[in-house]
Amino acid sequence: MQLDLYPVPARILVIAAHPDDIEIGAGGSIASWTDAGAEVQFCIVTDGSAGSNDPDYDKAALIQRRIHEQREAAAVIGVHTVHHLGYPDGTLQPTLELRRDLTRLIRQFRPNRVVIMDPTLKMLNDNEDFHYINHPDHVAAGEAALYAIFPSAETRPIFPELLAKGLEPHHVDEVYLMLAQDANIAVDISAQMERKQQSIRCHVSQLREDEIDFFSKWDRQIGAAVGVEYAEPFKVMRFIRA
Ligand SMILES: [Zn+2]
Asked: Residue 224 belongs to a domain with what CATH number?
């Protein structure tokens, strides 16, 4: 793994399945990019409505609460535009409809870099102390986003209904996979760590303090691997055209 020394581009789109995924996986990096002057927008694919096991919960109220929490969390790390696609939480599929929705956003905002979830990560079971089944919504959001970036966003004949609305093809230069398997790049977030934690804490309906401690330990481990205090790992792919 190497420290991220790539220049911060002008526009960055971050696509995730649930409210809170982005702050956990990339909150510090995003704060560092907005600090550097980038315009960053978020797209949350699901409505977050499965974020409660309380038999008496008010689904509509939870959806509204999580939109509010997400907006507050984004603002802490310098992001003021959050798109909510509103797909039902927990049963997401990488459909053509979702791919078209994400292609529409990419063609509208025209980001240089898109940050997505890793569609190849199904589970982690190689460490005796830590077993993890990746949420299938993460995999589905990651796959739809990956194929929205390529080929859908940059290929004129795909989704002609978008072209008919004046949305011209757009080529994305860089893809950053967050919470990724085989990460190759780490972003130094030492100066942004406090804001990252503050942004995670905005998701009051979802997170416990011990979970926040767990995430910061992980960021410290990644930091140690690249010689800084705290860092976030990504698998980075670059397709920059001369
Ligand atoms: Zn999630």
From this structure: 3.40.50.10320
Task: Find the 88 Cα to ligand 1 centroid distance in Å.
Answer: 13
Residue with tokens 């907006």: 71
Helix 209-226 to helix 193-201 angle, to the nearest 10 degrees? 150
Please give the residue range of the domain that contains residue 16: 2-238
CA of 119 to the centre of ligand 1 (A): 13
Q: How many domains does the chain have?
A: 1
Half-sphere exposure of 221 (CA within 13 A, CB side): 7
pLDDT exceeds cutoff 90 at 15: yes
pTM over 0.85: yes
CA of 205 to the centre of ligand 1 (A): 13
User: pLDDT by residue (tens digit) across 162-214?
Assistant: 999 999 999 999 999 999 989 999 999 999 999 999 999 999 999 888 888 88
CA 111 / ligand 1 centre spacing (Å)? 23
Q: Residue 102 C-alpha to ligand 1 middle, in angstroms?
A: 18
